[in-house]
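Limitations

Structures in this collection are predictions, not experimental determinations, and the ligand pose is part of the prediction. Treat each record accordingly. The example that follows, with 4-O-methyl-alpha-D-glucopyranuronic acid as the small molecule, is included so readers can see exactly what is and is not provided: the inputs are given verbatim, and the output is the predicted complex.
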Amino acid sequence: MRGSLLLASLIGLAVAEDGLAAWLRYARIPGGKCHRKKLPSAIVTLNATEGLPVYTAGQELAEGISSMFGKKLTLEESGTDADVPTVTVGTVGAYSESGGDVEDLPELIEDGYYLHISGGDVLILGQNERGALYGTFQYLARLAQGKVSDESFASNPDAPVRWVNQWDNLRDGGTHGSVERGYGGDSIFFWDGKIRDDLTRAGQYARLLASIGINAVVVNNVNANETILTEENMDGLARIADEFRPYGIQLGLSLNFASPQTLGGLDSFDPLDETVIEWWQGITDSLYERIPDMAGYLVKANSEGQPGPLTYNRTLADGANLFARTLQPHGGIIMFRAFVYDHTSLNQDLDWKADRANAAVQFFDGLDPQFEDNVVIQIKYGPIDFQVREPVSPLFAHMRETGSAIELQITQEYLGQQAHLVYLAPMWKELLDFDLRVDGEDSAVSDIISGKRFNNKLGGYAGVANVGHNTTWLGSHLAMSNLYAYGKLAWDPSSEPVDILEEWIKMTFGHEQEVIDVITEMSMESWPAYENYTGNLGIQTLTDILLGHYGPNPASQDGNPWGQWTRADGDTIGMDRTVLNGTGNAGQYPEEVFEMYENIETTPDNLLLWFHHVPYTQVLKSGKTVIQHFYDAHYAGSAVAQSFVPRWESLKTKIDAERYEHVLFRLVYQAGHSLVWRDSINNFYFNKSGILDEAGRVGNHPHRIEAEDMELDGYRTYLVSPFEAASGSLCIVTADNSTQGTASTKLDVEAGTYNVAVNYYDQAIGNSTWELYLDEELVGKWHGDLEYELGRAPSPYIDGHTAARITFKGVQVESGSILRIVGTPDGEEPAPVDYISILPEDVID
Ligand code: GCV
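Predicted complex:
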C-alpha cells in the first residue's frame, strides 16, 4: 500500500486508504525533497539479530525514509565512511563495544533511549533493544511530522508497565462475540477455540504498539477460558509471541482461576493447596519454555462470575501470590485486578449504605503488605466502571507497598463504542493529574502508579484496547487517536492531550493546517459534548447497563444488584456517598480529598451527583438547578455533535475519499444518535420530576410529525420500552413481518426548502427498507443495515440503542404536500418509524 501511496502523492492525487497503517503510513512529506540533505544515506544497526528489535529498527528506518522522502538508504552492519551521513541504531552496550563513546550519555532506564540528530548523522541508542526501537520510531515520527531539525535528547518511560489488554475470546458467539466490548471486528488472535493460523495482524499490531512505547499485550479476555492453556493453544501462544518479539512486545496471558479444576481435573482450585500450586507451576514452566520472554499474567478473580480465592475463604493476596511465586523464577509479573465486587447481593432498597464504589477498598483492605514483589494491582480509573465521569478510585491511595497500575479503556464501552467521536486523552489526563493528597503530600495518580510516590519498583498502565480484524483496527479512524494517546501518556503523563492529538493527525491525515485544526477542535470538544448528552454532574453514563452499554436507558441503572445506581425518584437524584449520611465512600479518600467530596459546597459540580443525593431543584455553583442543567447540557452537547458534520465536510477535498466517507458516515450517525440521547434523557427526567424546561424545549417539538399520528395502512402503533426512547413514547411497526406498511400525512408547512429527517429504529434482526415520498416523488430510500456498518453492540429491540436518524437535505416542499413513508419489513425487523421532522434551514430537532 505504501508503494501506491507514494505513486499517488507523486502525481498529486488524494489516495484511498483503509486505515491499516494507522499513524505509521509514512506518507510522502510535502516538500520532502528539500530535506534530503538533512537525512542519512546509510543505516548501521549494531549487533542486530533478525527477529529482534534492533534489526526491526533498521528495516523500519529504510522503509520509512524511502516512503516519506523517496531516499533509499543502504543497510550496513558496521561503521560507514566518515563522510557518509549515517543513522546508527543499537543498544548502549553494543555501541560501547563498537568503540562508541558512552561516557557523556544521559542516564537511561529500562526501555529508555537517547536520540541525537545532527543533520544526516543520527545516533539512536536504547538502554535495551526495545529502547533502540522506540528511539527509532520517535525519530521517524519526527520526520513524519516534517521535523528535520537537529536535536539531542534522552527519553525514559515514566512507568515500567505499559501494557495493552485485549478482551479477546477464543471463540466467536456467546453474549460477547469474538472480542468482548470490541467494536472493530473479530479477534486478530483467535478463531474457533484456537490461535489463528495467519497471525499477520498480530505482527502489525505489535508494530503499531511499539511505535507508541507499549511493552506488552495480554492477548485474551480477563473473563478467561481455561482452554487457553491446552498444549495446542500454548503452542499457538508461542507463535503470537514470535510475531510480537521483533517489536519488543511481550505476551501476557489472562488466566481463569479455576483452571486446575476445569482443565487440570483436580478437585480443587484452592490457592493454598499443594497440588494446585504444583499444577500452576507446571503450566507456568511450560509456558516459559515456549515463550522465555513472556511478560506475565493478568487475573480477574471473584468478580462478575469469575472464580477466585474467596471461594475457599482465602484472601485476594493468597490468590495473587500463587501466580506471583510461579512467575518469580522466570522474571514474570502478575497484574491482579482490583475490579472485585459482588454483583448478586447489593440491594439499594434495603440498604442506603450499600455501594459498589466501596468494593475495591473493602476487598483489598489490609492486604497491601501481603503481596509478593512481582504483583501489581490493576485498578480501573474510577470506583465503578469506565463511566464518562468518575472520581479516581480511592484504592490508589491505599496501595503503598504494592505497585499499582491504572486501567484505562481505549475501547469506548460506555463512551459511544466508536460510533461516537470521543477523544479520551483529556479525561485520562485529568485522572492522571489528580492529586490524592496522601498523608497531606503531593500524590498525583501518575506518580503513584509510576512508583515514584511510594517507592515501588513496579507499576504503570493497562489500556483495554480491543482492536479487531477490521482494517480500521478499532472500527473508526478517528478513534485511533485514543490508542495513540494512550501509549503516549503511558510513556509521559505530563504530555498534553492536544499536542499528542496534533502529532497523531499529522501522521494520520497529513500536514494541512485546516485538517489539523478541524480534527483537533472536534476531538477536543468531543468528550465534554458526550458527557453533556449522556450523563452530567457525575451521574454516570446513563446508558442501558443491562444490555449493550450503548444507548440511553437511565432506569436500567437502578433496582438491580449491579450497583451503578442513580437513586433517582420524583424529587431527588444522586448517590449519597458521604460519611455523614451516606455510603461512606468519600471516607475512603485521604483527608483533604475526603473533605472536598464530603461537603456539597466543595464538591465540584461535575461530581455532585456522584457524591450527593439532592433535589432536582438543588442550585449548582453555576446558578442553575440540577434539572435545568440536565436540560441545557443535553441540548448543548448534542448541538456540538451536530456541528461535527459540517466541520468534517469542510475537509472533503483534503482527505482521501475512503477515510473521509467512513468518518462522515459515523459523524452523521452520531449527530442523529446524540438527539436520541438528548431527548431520551430529558424526557425521562421531565417525566420523573415534572419540572418544566425553562427554555421550553423539552417535550416541545414544533417541527415533528409523530409517526403514530399519521394515517396508517399496514402499520400499527407500538409502545416503546424504555418509553423515553421514542418521541411521544410510541412508534409504528408493520402489522406483520411480511406486509408493507404505509404512513402518510398532509404537510401543514409553508412552501419552501427543508431538511427532512426521519427517526427510525434499526434492529439487528433484519434489514427493512424504508422509502420516503413527497407527492409520489421518491425523496430517499434506505435500509436497516447499521449493524453491518457500525461495530457498536447490536440490539434486537426497538430502543435507545437502535434509534437512528436519516436526513434528506434541501428538499422542496409545497404547502399541503402529501408525505408518505413506506416500510418493508425484513426478517424480524418491522420497519419501525418514530417521527419525521420538517426542518427549516439551520433548525435541528
Ligand atoms: C471483561 C465491565 C464490562 C465487562 C468486563 C468487565 C471487566 O463490566 O462490561 O465486559 O468484562 O467490566 O472489566 O472485567
